[in-house]
Design goal:
By secondary structure, the protein is of the alpha+beta class. The protein has one domain (2-68): HIT-like (HIT family, subunit A), CATH 3.30.428. It has one helix at residues 17-37; strands at residues 2-3, 43-47, 63-68. Strands 1-3-2 form a 3-stranded antiparallel β-sheet, covered by helices on one side. The N and C termini lie far apart (32 Å).
């Protein structure tokens, strides 16, 4: 799921405090709804790529809310070693 503010800004760091709070409130509501509809969801990835080097492809602020189920992806290690 993508959460996108109405006002155009290039990345999440350019949003206002009020916009970030609205994004967070919507994410909480969406998380609740997703969990109610799909009990297999046991976690979420929540974040934003900022800048081309970080993988940003669409240069309009947005946040990814990705529901995760056990075994749906290999978890990266916290440390490279």
């Amino acid at each position: 799921m993508l959460i996108i503010p109405k006002r155009h800004v290039t990345n999440i760091f350019e949003t206002s405090v009020e916009e970030r709070e609205a994004i967070h409130e919507l994410a909480v509501l969406c998380r609740k709804t997703i969990c109610e509809k799909d009990p297999d969801v046991q976690g979420f990835n929540f974040g934003s790529n900022v800048g081309e080097t970080a993988g940003q492809k669409i240069f309009h602020a947005h946040v990814h809310l990705i529901p995760r189920r056990p075994g749906d992806a290999e978890l990266p290690s916290a440390r490279p070693d």
